[in-house]
Design goal:
It comes from Streptomyces glaucescens. Keywords: Cell membrane, Membrane, Transmembrane, Transmembrane helix, Transport. The strands form two sheets. The chain has a five-stranded antiparallel sheet, with no helix packed on it. The protein has a four-stranded mixed sheet with strand order 1-4-5-8, with no helix packed on it. It contains 15 helices and nine strands. The relative contact order is 0.13. It is α+β, with helices and mostly antiparallel strands.
Length: 452
């Protein structure tokens, strides 16, 4: 009797437990159905390509012959790959460090700016520009031609403001017209001159349209004679517009060359110097008796300063890193600014009341309290930098592409950009994945610890 009662009492309890389990099972099935499309998409776009690349890295270029670890050993014997590893290391060390430092400084300074929101928006705007567009912008900005590249236009303007520029970079003397070219690019008269002589120095290679404003005909100046103790002459363009005239003779329509530096040289030393007038005339007064030569210094013919070769082999990597900084500085500033807004203000005020200056507060309180945020920003940028491809591929010109290459661009070049060796390219992809995974794991752990 007792056993029967126990069985009858246990049936409702078991039935109620079964009823409770059914909704749970149904909920799990529904959740799985909702997650399944995302899992399929993740598997198709992430898991399968990774597994395929790992398998492909063990085959040759054709994909038919198994070569084991040969692609991995070849990868570290290839000079181009070693250069890509070196450049990637430079990126990983320099770019995240500069970005984190700039973001920290700007985040602290923005707090003291009246229009802080507008300033943040202005710095964050480059994040809305795609890497392709940013690469094109900076490719033009870094152009070596000052008429196209804004950076070189600024550099040339500053350089010319302090050192000046030559007026006649294309000018040269006619052969057999009494001028010889020195090794340094200067011109000197072949005949010895004495005070009282007059000399005409004809040059060619200057377009009439390139003459300085205010240049006057040289014919009248060429007809003047020198007085006692005076050495004079004229520097002119030995070219008659429209044809005609005679070489070595100053024609009525031939122009003088103003602002040309002229020197009187005796025994290898410059004893006097002057600048030509608008009609090209010059005059040295009060010269002692003796033998002289007249020289046109090389500075008159120096080519114009063309600026800095930003995209040359030496500067191409720093130049591309500069473009990357322009894009990502706003990102670092906003993230660090968000962390800065959560700092306990009482600690900062207490430090000020204790007599600490702003630098001491920044170094000993702000930075230590922001260390977790700075670490997350730095590691996130490290992950992003390892995958950089667009800027390097677009900004670096073809001749210096190898000097600027990083692992991502080298992987593409080896696989599809002419190398046609997808086995080696897959090995490079696996190497890049192995380098990125530790940083990703570190970041995930940091997020989990912060949530706890």
């Amino acid at each position: 009797m007792t056993a029967t009662l126990v069985k009858e009492a246990s049936r409702p309890a078991a039935a109620s437990a079964g009823v409770r389990r059914r909704p749970r099972r149904r909920g799990r099935v529904v959740a799985l159905l909702f997650v399944l499309p995302a899992l399929l998409l993740l598997g198709a776009l992430v898991v399968y390509p990774v597994l395929f690349s790992v398998g492909r890295s063990f085959f040759d270029a054709s994909g038919n012959r198994f070569v084991g670890g040969e692609n991995y050993t070849e990868m570290f014997r290839d000079p181009a790959t070693l250069k890509a590893v070196r450049n990637t290391a430079i990126w990983v060390v320099v770019a995240p460090t500069l970005l984190t430092g700039l973001g920290l400084i700007l985040a602290v300074l923005v707090e003291k700016v009246r229009w802080a929101t507008a300033f943040k928006l202005l710095l964050f705007m480059p994040m809305a520009v795609s890497f392709l567009a940013a690469g094109i912008i900076f490719r033009l900005a870094y152009d070596e031609d000052p008429d196209k590249g804004v950076l070189n236009a600024a550099v040339v303007s500053v350089h010319d403001a302090f050192t000046g520029t030559s007026t006649y970079p294309t000018a040269r003397a006619r052969d057999g017209q009494g001028l010889t070219k020195e090794p340094d690019g200067a011109y000197r008269t072949t005949a010895a001159l004495t005070p009282g002589d007059t000399v005409t120095l004809g040059l060619v290679g200057v377009q009439p349209k390139d003459l300085p404003d205010g240049a006057e005909p040289a014919h009248a100046a060429a007809g003047r004679t020198s007085g006692p103790g005076e050495l004079s002459g004229v520097v002119y363009l030995d070219f008659t517009p429209g044809g005609g005239g005679e070489q070595g003779q100053v024609d009525r329509r031939e122009s003088g060359l103003p602002d040309m530096r002229v020197e009187a040289v005796r025994d290898g030393e410059v004893v006097a110097s002057t600048t030509t007038a608008p009609d090209g005339s010059f005059r040295f007064d009060g010269l002692p008796d003796g033998s002289y030569t007249v020289a046109l210094p090389a500075a008159n013919f120096a080519p114009p300063y063309e600026g800095v070769s930003w995209l040359g082999p030496a500067l191409v990597t720093p130049a591309i890193i500069g473009a990357y900084l322009w894009i990502w500085t706003g990102f670092a500033m906003v993230l660090i600014g968000a962390g800065l807004s959560t700092l306990p203000r009482d600690a900062l005020e207490a430090a000020r009341m204790d007599g600490a200056n702003e630098w001491q507060i920044f170094r000993r309180i702000t930075v230590p309290l922001l260390a977790p945020v700075l670490t997350v920003v730095f590691v996130t940028l490290v992950i992003n930098v390892m995958k950089v491809f667009d800027l390097v591929y677009i900004i670096a010109p073809g001749p210096v592409q190898e000097d600027a290459t990083v692992l991502a661009t080298q992987m593409w070049l080896v696989s599809f950009g002419g190398g046609n060796n997808q086995g080696l390219g897959s090995a490079l992809g696996v190497l890049l994945l192995l380098l990125v995974v530790p940083a990703m794991v570190f970041n995930v752990r940091r997020f989990r610890r912060s949530q706890r």
